[in-house]
């Protein structure tokens, strides 16, 4: 069973343990502790000296007791005196929520009793309310605060930034803001004060507001929370902390916040001296989450799993399609054709889509392109081909105020297109999203799944679309193997010839013409920087029999972005894009160019980055990036990245010390007579 636990996590271990519990009583007595709740030894050993006791492990030989039915209505909790009337009133009357979701009905009673709870539940199932309700209830009925018998105005006046009672840790700014909005709605009649602590905001302004208004519930991201709590001059403290919540715990650890979480815990009061409840909600329960459980939760915490094995997850239930593009330059025309087709064939059905990109700058570029679309590309006064469909963008380069405004606007809108990086891929609840469109192969399988999970929520319909270059098809199939993704060939723009002068061609597709006309109006700086960022996100396993990845991204620069020549990429990026050597055998001294290592290893005779040990070669201090013709011809071995080389640039002259060549540089990056003189990349 321990092997199953290690391989597949807690769920498989629980199943294995149940099979042991099914044995006759005589056999069970050999390994059950009679005076304590039943915990398999294998599970207990993993958490020594703090054993983990799951709710699922009850002594089946004990006298059975009549189980009370779980309440399904929030009003039931109020009628039984379990939940404060002010909370019930807000939920039922102002939030218009009557019935509890499964994760709420299964966790609220334990959490309201002060138990530590680890709940496994999918996103979009009401987890936010499941942990906010008990922490607010516990603060309202705290004996030392006695808030329940005071007016809301008096509670606000007495709030202090040095007596925070609950902290909620979230992996992203947007999710933290969303949680804070829900918390403020739940506390509107009680007077409890909710504050946020997220990056991208003015720290000084936040501190002043917290000191002025006080704080009972602090919601934030790990970095900013640690920043506030560790600053001795911030005047933000939690000496009487009663609740600690980890939302999207698996995402917190995936994002690399393990150290910050440990540091935050060291700043909080000792749970052995100050009674504290810990609630953890997570879509999955990997070993990293269990490590945090061991460090933060009481040994007798409750584990509640609401993910049923017989229930198909969103990424199996939502119809998904992949579109193979002739070139990267075909992506936006194909997306535009998809949107226009939907609006023409289903005029009465709203189109509300999130478009995901693998880099921030590519997100911004595509948003700007769609913003500037015109029915007639030559006339800027012509109408937008998508009419009044709202368009917006969200990524890490926006301020937190801008990101909050965008998410709220898109959340309330019945239709629209949100151009997004991965900041919205998990946790955020956007109702009624009809389409999730992904441009380019995602970084990993989990990213694809969580992106698709933004649609088809709460039983609604939705579609997932993936647009990839045909050279990515093989690697994409391996990455997403087993998912119900079908290839779609209905979009003409996906395979259109973008090399021709489409604006002068009367037979060209309207979507192709409109995108090309829009791109021409975008600043060259944005196009160049976005292209570089995009190139870095192209998978290294790209393959077509007639083109390598470097040629594909160069075509995108010329035929998709309208640049006269493809800008120069860094050596590392070009190395990834030409990995394994191209058809002529001159790529980075790879296998086809007889080199033993990338960047022109010893014995490389090709025309790529370094020949015969020149440049980036092992222990060779002389020579440029190429010995033959790729960058320059360092006759004296002067240019390049040699370790002890006195000439520092790509210069052809041995004495020229300026970076990227000097006046005598005729073939490389030199400021004179360069092929790129007019394009300052």
How would you portray this structure in words?
The protein has 681 residues and is an alpha/beta fold. The strands form two sheets. The chain has a seven-stranded parallel beta sheet with strand order 3-4-2-5-6-1-7, sandwiched between helices. It has a seven-stranded parallel beta sheet with strand order 10-11-9-12-13-8-14, sandwiched between helices. The chain contains 25 helices and 14 strands. It starts with a helix and ends in a 104-residue tail after the last helix. The protein has four domains: 1-67, no CATH class; 74-305, Rossmann fold; 314-497, P-loop containing nucleotide triphosphate hydrolases (Rossmann fold); 596-681, no CATH class. The radius of gyration is 30 Å and the shape is elongated. It has helices spanning 2-8, 10-21, 25-28, 41-46, 74-79, 85-94, 102-112, 127-140, 152-158, 173-186, 203-213, 222-230, 249-254, 258-267, 287-296, 314-317, 331-345, 360-371, 400-412, 445-452, 473-479, 510-519, 524-537, 549-560, 571-577; strands at residues 117-120, 166-169, 194-197, 217-220, 243-247, 277-282, 302-305, 320-325, 352-356, 391-394, 416-420, 435-439, 463-469, 485-487.
- Side-by-side strand order of the widest sheet: 3-4-2-5-6-1-7
The average pLDDT score comes to 76
Work out the radius of gyration.
30 Å
| Unreliable sequence segments | 1-67, 580-681
Just give the CATH class of the largest domain: Alpha Beta
Q: What is the rounded distance between the termini?
A: 58 Å
Largest sheet at a glance? 7 strands, parallel
Principal-axes geometry comes out as elongated
- Pairing-aware structural class of the strands and helices? alpha/beta
| CATH homologous superfamily identity of the largest domain | P-loop containing nucleotide triphosphate hydrolases
- Total helix count? 25
What CATH architecture of the largest domain do you see? Answer: 3-Layer(aba) Sandwich
- β content, as a range? 5-15%
Determine the fraction of residues in helical runs and give it as a percent range.
25-40%
Total count of domains: 4
CATH-defined fold name of the largest domain: Rossmann fold
Number of strands: 14
